[in-house]
Write a structure and sequence with these properties.
The complex is a heterodimer. By secondary structure, chain A is an alpha/beta fold. Chain A contains nine helices and 19 strands. Chain A has a ten-stranded mixed β-sheet with strand order 2-1-5-7-9-11-13-15-17-19, covered by helices on one side. Chain A has a nine-stranded mixed β-sheet with strand order 3-4-6-8-10-12-14-16-18. The chains are: A alpha/beta, B alpha/beta. The interface between A and B is medium-sized, with 29 and 33 residues.
Chain lengths: 439, 249
């Protein structure tokens, strides 16, 4: 008999599926998975009754059925390669499974590991023992527990102390088949003073599927990681992804997040900052039709002298809905914290909606914390300025909306990535007033 | 070219312009001076079509057409350029992109093809040099992080590219140091021609030392109360606007 909901179906199938999951034959990993499964099976996917999920109702997932991609489907190579950035090492995960055929990893310097998580759990599971579940707890919410129980593969990246990667590593997650469950776990560890850049790309061929990915990131003292997430999932896709980052003393983390695709998506970014660590989070979410884009960030200043900067922008049109939650927690010990958070939103239609919630929790007394939120329409003075230069009102509004979003794209330093994101942004602005040939 | 007859206008509910008359012929440079609150900026906003003002009486024709009937962008395309007192910053769009978009909007209105990319660059770079601006400005976001002087020079650059028939300069001299003022004035002088007219709205006589007007008007309480030649500006500089009170009394 078919189970009533997606989560029940998944729970029912788990006893048969689990033996084939990577790491299930390893004691510590089996315990890890079993605990996660029991937590997930107790309550299923998060409900809007939970404070952190108040604005993002995932119940529609329950009407679907998701399963591992089974049949080997020939992939559209041209489409896949159109997602690749030049001058990168590329890791490809197809339907949640590491593909050595399409990955391009030759020439990685000594001291750098880029490997399949499934393969690593088989050949050298202890390499992951100190990382798995250490940057984020299953208690966080049930998509984490779900991921811990079900992840089928992922990418393990480790950079030895002092090694500086000359090129970024691009992780391309693609989903190619309907009803696929793409469930991946990334472990990223930079040892002392290591420097790396990671670009995540999520895309899918037009169909409904579910992506869940959890990235656990460990930055040792003075390590520097630049990261970007380009979420261009298919129109019917559900996407739940997270970055959970532990930053040791003076470690630096920069993240650019572009949420353009998907039907209902959520990205969580958590940074735990030790002494004098720095993090910068930039984000842009665009919503059209009935898209729902949720960005949840949490920055915890655990120790003194850390710096955090956060700027998120949302542009919502038609019946789209955006959610931004930015939480900054300054622990009692975190004196001289310097933190700024800002979220600006443009609502372009009377049916569009944004729920924005900046939260500051400060337990130290010598801190500099600022936060600001705006929700509104375009500045009328700017519209008039453009009109006074001959642009008609509609073109002026389109140009200014584009300009608002483009500010976040302009923060990308790496040219190949900048150009790719810009072209994705331009696809969302086909209107009069935005001339791509001149940008 | 521009003919303003008995213009009355409100800002919101408040009457500001109260029967203003002004005639500007091709090639003429007019200066409008006056104390704070006289209606100088309202005049520039009403002429350029900014929201928030209602014309209650009078008419304005520009090159034979009813100006007040036109949307702001049509006025611009017909040849009116307003150099803003406070130019707007638009992060996210480069200056050069904006210039080209504006120029093409004008050209389309005049039935011309879009400007050729190479010709455009040559044209812009020439003008940039003339205004002693760094070419890098072209690739920066519109007015973002520009100093006061840079913003005003940028306004003049736009005017030079768009080649208006009538250029309204709203307090263009405010916030400029003497070097920047000279450069801006040189730019304005370079644009002067037998066909192009200027309406300079200013609080001080400073700019008029460098851009010599044909006519100086004094605007007070929404009306032009006195008109003269350049010497009137000098007089005002020396004796101030106190004569206005005597007149009213």
């Amino acid at each position: 008999m078919m189970s009533e909901t997606a989560s029940l179906a998944l729970i029912e199938d788990y006893p048969q599926a689990k033996a084939n999951l990577p790491g299930y034959g390893v004691d510590w990993c089996r315990t890890f998975r079993d605990q996660a499964f029991s937590q997930f099976s107790a309550s299923g996917f998060p409900s809007p009754r939970e404070e952190e999920w108040r604005y993002t109702n995932v119940s529609a997932i329950e009407k679907k059925r998701f399963h591992w991609a089974t049949a080997e489907k020939p992939i559209d190579t041209a489409w896949l390669q159109s997602l690749f950035l030049d001058d990168c090492w590329t890791v490809v995960l197809i339907d949640g499974v590491f593909s050595s055929d399409y990955s391009r990893l030759s020439g990685l310097p000594d001291g750098v590991v880029v490997a399949s998580v499934a393969e690593t759990l088989q050949s050298n599971p202890d390499a992951l023992k100190d990382y798995l579940g250490q940057a984020v707890s299953d208690k966080e919410h049930n998509f984490i527990a779900f991921n811990s129980a079900w992840f089928r593969d992922g990418v393990f990246i480790r950079v030895e102390a002092g090694v500086c990667l000359e090129q970024p590593i691009q992780i391309v997650h693609v989903t190619t088949q309907a009803e696929t469950l793409s469930c991946t776990r990334q472990i990223i560890a930079l040892q002392e003073a290591a420097i790396a850049e990671i670009i995540e790309t999520y895309a899918g061929q037009e169909c409904a599927y579910l992506t869940t990915s959890v990235n656990e990131v460990f930055l040792a003292d003075k390590a520097q990681l630049g990261a970007s997430k380009v979420q261009q999932e298919a129109e019917q896709a559900w996407h739940f992804g997270g970055w959970y980052v532990k930053q040791s003393t003076q470690a630096q983390f920069t993240h650019h997040h572009f949420a353009f695709g998907g039907l209902l998506t959520r990205t969580d970014i958590h940074c735990d900052l030790e002494t004098a660590a720095e993090c910068e989070l930039n984000g842009l979410f665009l919503g059209l039709k009935r898209q729902h884009q949720d960005s949840h960030t949490r920055i915890v200043h655990q120790k003194p002298d850390a710096i955090s900067r956060e700027q998120y922008k949302g542009v919502l049109n038609q019946r789209a809905r955006g959610v931004f939650q930015g939480r900054v927690i300054v622990a009692q010990d975190a004196q001289r914290t310097d933190s700024q958070m800002n979220n600006q939103n443009l609502l372009l239609s009377e049916h569009a909606e944004i729920d924005t919630k900046p939260q500051l929790e400060i337990y130290a007394d010598d801190v500099k914390c600022a936060h600001g939120v705006t929700v509104g329409q375009l500045d009328e003075n700017s519209v008039f300025y453009c009109q006074s230069r001959g642009l008609d009102e509609e073109s002026a509004r389109n140009m200014l909306t584009f300009a608002f979003a483009n500010q976040m794209v302009k923060k990308i330093e790496r040219k190949a990535l900048h150009d790719q994101v810009l072209s994705l942004l331009l696809q969302r602005f086909p209107q009069q007033g935005v001339d791509s040939s001149w940008l | 070219m521009l003919s303003i007859e008995n213009l009355h206008a409100n800002a919101g509910e408040k009457p500001i312009l109260k029967g203003l008359n002004l005639q500007i012929n091709p090639g003429e440079v007019h200066a409008i001076m006056g104390p704070n609150g006289a209606g100088k900026s309202t005049l520039s906003h009403v002429l350029s079509g900014k929201d928030g003002y209602t014309v209650t009486e009078g008419k304005v024709t520009f090159c034979g057409k009813d100006l007040l009937d036109m949307a702001p962008e049509i006025r611009a395309r017909e040849g009116i350029f307003l150099a803003f007192q406070y130019p707007v910053e638009i992060p996210g769009v480069s200056n050069i992109y904006f210039l080209k978009a504006a120029l093409n909007a004008m050209r389309k209105h005049r039935g011309l093809d879009e400007v050729d990319a190479m010709d455009f660059l040559t044209l812009v770079k020439d003008k940039v040099k003339l205004l002693k601006m760094d070419e890098k400005f072209l690739y920066r976001a519109i007015n973002e992080g520009f100093s006061g002087g840079e913003k005003k020079r940028n306004e003049i650059l736009q005017a030079m590219i768009l080649e208006p028939k009538l250029c309204i300069l709203d307090e263009t001299d405010s916030g400029l140091d003497i070097d920047a003022l000279k450069i801006v004035a040189e730019g304005i002088n370079a644009m002067r021609s037998a066909e192009r007219s200027f309406l300079m709205i200013t609080h001080y006589q400073r700019l008029l030392d460098y851009v010599k007007p044909d006519f100086v008007h004094v605007l007070a309480d929404g009306k032009i109360v006195k008109t003269g030649g350049p010497e009137l500006a000098k007089e005002l500089e020396e004796s101030g606007y106190s004569f206005l009170e005597q007149q009213v009394a």
